[in-house]
Amino acid sequence: KNEVEQSPQNLTAQEGEFITINCSYSVGISALHWLQQHPGGGIVSLFMLSSGKKKHGRLIATINIQEKHSSLHITASHPRDSAVYICAVPYSGGGADGLTFGKGTHLIIQP
Amino acid sequence: DAGVIQSPRHEVTEMGQEVTLRCKPISGHNSLFWYRQTMMRGLELLIYFNNNVPIDDSGMPEDRFSAKMPNASFSTLKIQPSEPRDSAVYFCASSSSGANVLTFGAGSRLTVL
Question: Which of B111, B107, B113 is nearest to B36 (CA)?
Fold first, then answer.
């Protein structure tokens, strides 16, 4: 089973700061997911990536397959970015499995 | 598409009662997943189906838990009898095989007293 480690667990920053959240996993994978869980509980898929970098608005996700590591960056952070960010990888490495999740990073952006 | 639909959104029940959670995946998605989220353990995979067939139920905590997918548009997760430690948010998610894009339902918050 893939093991997922996220850091930091908690992060409080000021509006406008550049945010980095890290994720490491133990088993080679086909793709990695970044999810966002809002205070209301809903979970939204932000990115699915298997190599390189993806960008969506102020969010950037990168992955290094060789090092089994991914980062999620938020540029010009805003209070509405406050949420839990969760990294997830296939349960046993393959693409058709369910996911195993990191514990999440609780991000608070203060105005 | 209305997305993945779960019901009920909230359920409060007493220990020993049967609980049934329901999920309607996105039309055309052929993989369906049940996850449980608790403060202590975070998100955990319970079981997943591919083309209505259970593929991996190793995450189901014990025999009190059972899941079915009688057709491509409906799945249930049943807990009988329920216990206070089953209190959690249960998420259903669906995806299209090979797409690796996962869509979550809004979750069912279960409280067992």
Answer: B107
Torsion A92-A96-A97-A103 (CA) sign: positive
Strand A32-37 and strand A43-49: pairing? antiparallel
- What's the CA angle centered on A90, arms A56 and A61, to 5 degrees? 20
Q: Do A98 and B103 touch (CB under 8 A)?
A: no
Asked whether B28 and B3 are in contact (CB, 8 A), the reply is no
Cα B16 to chain centroid, rounded: 19
Q: Which residue has the tokens 């353990």?
A: B41
The tens digit of pLDDT for each residue in B44-78 reads 889 989 899 998 888 888 899 999 999 999 999 99
Three-class SS of residue A110? strand
| C-alpha to C-alpha distance for B57 and B21, rounded to whole angstroms | 16
Which residue of chain A comes nearest to B41, CA vs CA?
A103
pLDDT value for A97: 62
Q: Which two tokens stand for residue A110?
A: 């203060």
Neighbouring C-beta atoms of residue B15, cutoff 10 Å: 12
CB B22 within 8 A of CB B9: no
Name which of B23, B26, B45, B60 to mutate to probe chain A: the one with the most chain A Cβ atoms within 10 A of its Cβ: B45
Q: How many residues does chain A have?
A: 111
